[in-house]
Amino acid sequence: MNSHLKFPEALKVPHGFMSRNDGVSLGVYEGLNCGPGSDDDPDLVRENRRIAASIVSGRRDTPLVSCYQVHGATAVQVTADWADERPKADAMVTKRPGIILGILTADCTPVLFADTDAGVVGAAHAGWQGALKGIIESTVALMEQLGAHRKSISTVVGPTIAQQSYEVDNDFEARFLKQSAAYSRFFDTGKDASHQQFNLPAFVVHKLSEAGIEHIVDSGIDTYSDEQYFSYRRTTHRNEPDYGRQVSAIMLAR
């Protein structure tokens, strides 16, 4: 049984891909809901984020920053704890020890990055829109600006909706084929001629490789079928009123 995933051989810095276990939220948010954008009790969300911080760093008071995620391609540098003043962006990069970078997801793909030689880490929210627009490339480019080297960056692709759970229509596929006909390989036959099954994690892995990243680990976990994780699509299919968000986080130790 998976809980909070860590990949120390790959990333070699404090990090974790949180499941919904060990949190204090209730109802549809039951567990470790770390999303301030949900309609959950803000006090419970703050407590969950302190729990997540302790899982990553060993301390509840370590700052955990996250963005106002907009499914775009903007990556920002983190130099200080911005608390609730969240910038509109989908990736963060830092070379400052002691600040946790947290990506919130509920089916989209979280990606954690680390170049331990350069002392630079990053975290990206790669939903289909951000991945197609270039969020991976933006994150790697900003890491390079801070002194990282592409060949030295290690990455882990966290829990995300898997191909068998991700049904899309032909218009969705057309957006990808417009950018590259080769992207057809990330789609498989759906239930009928107007539907396809999209492989988001494989597309993100492709984008990482295309950006010059050689060290890539895929967690292989489907957020839709594994109820230890929040899933926007599962919630929608169940007609539930809202959904929680898990956090995937990384930091440089002090």
User: Please, how many helices?
Assistant: 7
Name the helicity range. Answer: 25-40%
Quickly give the structural class.
alpha+beta
Order of helices and strands: HEHEEEEEEHHEEHEEHEHE
Distance between the termini: 31 Å
Uncertain residue ranges: none
DSSP strand content: 15-25%
Q: Give a count of the beta strands, DSSP E runs of length 2 or more.
A: 13
* Oligomer type: single chain
- Shape type: globular
Strand order of the largest sheet: 3-4-7-6-8-12
Mean residue pLDDT: 97
How can the largest sheet be summarized?
6 strands, mixed
The radius of gyration computed from the alpha-carbon positions, rounded to a whole number of angstroms, is 17 Å
Explain what the structure shows.
The mean pLDDT is 97. The protein contains seven helices and 13 strands. The protein is α+β, with helices and mostly antiparallel strands and 254 residues long. It starts with 7 loop residues before the first helix and ends with a strand. The strands form three sheets. The chain has a six-stranded mixed beta sheet. A four-stranded mixed beta sheet has the order 1-13-5-2. A three-stranded antiparallel beta sheet has the order 9-11-10. Strand 6 (109-115) and strand 7 form a beta hairpin.
Name the features.
alpha+beta, 7 helices, 13 strands, globular
In short:
The chain is α+β, with helices and mostly antiparallel strands and 254 residues long. The chain has helices at 8-11, 42-57, 128-133, 135-145, 170-179, 200-210, 232-237, and strands spanning 15-17, 64-65, 75-77, 91-94, 100-105, 109-115, 120-126, 154-157, 167-169, 187-189, 195-198, 215-218, 246-250.
